[in-house]
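Reading a protein record of the kind used here takes little practice once its layout is understood. The reader may check this reading against the record printed directly beneath this paragraph.
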Amino acid sequence: MNRTTVSTVILVAALACATAAPAHSASRTCATGGLVVWMDTNGDGAAGTVYYHLELTNLSGHTCTLRGFPGVSAVKLGGGRIGSAAGRDPATPVKTISIANGRTAKATLGIVSAGNFPSSKCRQTTAAGLRIYPPNQTASKVVPFPFAACSRTGPIFLRVRAVT
């Protein structure tokens, strides 16, 4: 190769590197399969509602992101839904949360006392736990946690905030 050819090859390689996409990849959305979903059962009560932290721990092996509200509903022993799904509580602003592997994001869940609703509208029963869908996911995990729930749809006895 002569000098002109070598210079041209170096210039082409330098231009290719300068215009190539950055080496880092965009952050991935946290998939349900890479998360351990659990609940801190040390609740804090106020005015007929007890607030708990839903915990979403990333064990996927890489950093991922969550944005928005988890889907939450009460379930029977067999996993079938009881009553209405959780309503969204706008008290926490929606932000994209980056979670490193081994780290945890949280969402506050309020459980309204089923006794606050008229028995004819609620039909109180005991839920076996909670079905939790991480934000923007279609797969869920069930967290065992017995509590008084409304078996009829209509009363919103669960209220969830955005992940933090």
